[in-house]
Structure formats: C-alpha cells, structure tokens
Amino acid sequence: DPEDTSQVVEYYIYVSAASDGAGRYSVGAPLPLGVNNITVPDSLALGSFTHVIVYTSSSLVEQTTPAAFLFSDTSSSVSNVNFIDLDLDIVELGGTVQWLQPNETLHVQGYFVYLAINEVGAGRSLIGSLVTEGTNELFFHADTQMHSYAHIVVYTKSVLFEQTTPVDFVFSDVSAPVRAVDFVEKDLDADELGGTVTWQTPLVYAQVSHYVAYLASGSQGEGRSQIATEVAFGTNSIDITPDTGLANFSLVVVYSKSDIAEQTTPEIFRISDAVSTVSSIVFPDQDLDGEHFGGFVTWTPPADVSQV
C-alpha cells in the first residue's frame, strides 16, 4: 500500500506497452484497499506488453501516473522428449517417457505428461500424476490402451499454471508377435505330449528380450500352464518333456516378452495328439521244449506312422 492511504479506495491493475500505461489492458476487476495481489490469467497473450502497472483510485478519480514494473516473459519448455514402446501388443502402450529439463527451472514446479491426438494436446489423457521438478522421466505400465492417440505431450507447470503449449513426441506402437508357431508331437501315447515347439522371430524384434510358451485351452491363453522356463531372445524353440499330460489343453501359445511385460495376446498352434499303437499282436510259440519259447512276433502297424 502507499504510505498515505487516507484517500485510497481501490487499485486498478493493467498490463501495458510502456511504464506510463500506453496501450494498457485490464487484468481484472478493481481491488479494494488492503488487497495487494492479483493473479494474471495464463490465457493472456504477451503481445507488445512489457509492464505491469498499478493505479490507485480515490472515491472520485483514478490516478494519472501509475506505478510500473518491467517484467520478463518466462519460457520453460522441456526438450528432447522420447518414448520407446515396450508393450509388444498392437494398440497397447507401456514404457518410460523421458525428456530434458528446461534451461530455466526457477519457476517450474513439475511436469504433466499426456497421451494426445495431436501436437498441441487435443483430446489429451493424463499419464500418472505430476512429476516433480528434478525428475525427467515417467514410467507407465503395459496394457495402456492407445485408442486414437499418436502423440505424447509434456507440459511444464508453475505453482499457478500449467503451460499452454506443450512439447510433443510422435510415438510408434510396437507390435512383436512371433511367427509360424509349430509343434511336432512325438509322444506316441494317447493323451500325452512330448516334442519341440518352434517359432520364427518377430518381424519387429528390437524390444523383445524373451519368449514364453504355454499349453492352453483357449486362444487368449485361458487355462494356461507354462512349458519349462522362458527362453532368451535368439532361441526359437522349447521342449515339452515326454509324458506331459494333455489334460484339457488344445493349444500351444507363445508370447514375446520385453523388459517390462509379456504380451497379452499370443500366437497359437493347435495340438494334434499323436497316437501310434500297434494292434493285432500274434506270437505262436514254435519252441517245442518245455519252459522255453521262440518264434515270430507279428503285428499290425499303427495307422499313423509319421513319427514312428
């Protein structure tokens, strides 16, 4: 407040292009004596404004010569936003968003990160919560739906306002299913399995770290039971131990896995249980001595001899 407030009723606050109030623009309603601050809305365009000016007013008239403050426009945007999708399913996302902090962080409280339709943040959806200044990354879990988003946008935030214009990154959705899953059944007993599951490397494989295979009753992995342990990228086969019970399994399912998650949707191969049992065994004993036997054993071969 002024030293002498005996005639002061209120204050008028403007932004202007000069200290004398030229080209001034009001930033709000007059404030009564005793109120000494006002929030300038973040929607106000800088234009040619260079000063904040304050006029005192009596009950009769507003002051002619204001008090002025020359302000500097603060610009604190992040840079080098980056994101690598580690969710290996199509139209699903997961991984870590990274960025470089602004050159000027004095007024930066933190950062908000969103998925958005375009580079200016249209239709945005917040990822996580406020990332405090000093931390330049944000992890979000796999299985986040991509919807129609194509951009990740990062806004800086001061104590009062979130930035209006973000910094954006156009991401790529990574899909890395294995190809050509195959299983040749070599356990020749009914309702038992044994053999080697094989597959081909995904067309996109940079983010693949392992593969995991299961026996399952459904194409989405329902009722699954893991086959041995996961195998590292570069190994494209896994063995099913002979005498493994078929139970109610009908499929072999294989998932690619990244450093953060296994795929949600596997590639599948439908099991055909190989049964190759001979029939009609005949053995007439042609050794005529007691307690001895000998002769020819004959049988009918199995209908399927492909694995015999």
Topology, element by element:
Blueprint: E1 10-16, E2 25-26, E3 31-32, E4 51-57, E5 67-70, E6 79-83, E7 92-100, E8 110-116, E9 125-126, E10 131-132, E11 137-145, E12 151-157, E13 167-170, E14 179-185, E15 192-200, E16 210-216, E17 225-226, E18 231-232, E19 237-245, E20 251-257, E21 267-270, E22 279-282, E23 298-300
Antiparallel strand pairs: 1-2, 1-3, 1-4, 4-5, 6-7, 7-11, 8-9, 8-10, 8-12, 12-13, 14-15, 15-19, 16-17, 16-18, 16-20, 20-21, 22-23
Classify the helix fraction into a percent range.
under 10%
Sequence of secondary-structure elements = EEEEEEEEEEEEEEEEEEEEEEE
The total count of helices amounts to 0
Could you list the spans in which at least 5 consecutive residues all have pLDDT below 50? none
The biggest beta sheet, please? 5 strands, antiparallel
Q: What gyration radius follows from the Cα positions, in whole Å?
A: 37 Å
Structural class: mainly beta
Work out the number of β strands: 23
- Through-space gap between termini: 101 Å
| Arithmetic mean pLDDT | 90
Global outline? rod-shaped
Structural commentary:
By secondary structure, the chain is mainly β. Helices cover 0% and strands 39% of the residues. It is built from no helices and 23 strands. It has strands at residues 10-16, 25-26, 31-32, 51-57, 67-70, 79-83, 92-100, 110-116, 125-126, 131-132, 137-145, 151-157, 167-170, 179-185, 192-200, 210-216, 225-226, 231-232, 237-245, 251-257, 267-270, 279-282, 298-300. Strands 1, 2, 3, 4 and 5 form a five-stranded antiparallel sheet that branches. Strands 8, 9, 10, 12 and 13 form a five-stranded antiparallel sheet that branches. Strands 16, 17, 18, 20 and 21 form a five-stranded antiparallel sheet that branches. A hairpin with an 8-residue loop joins strand 16 (210-216) and strand 17 (225-226). The protein is rod-shaped.
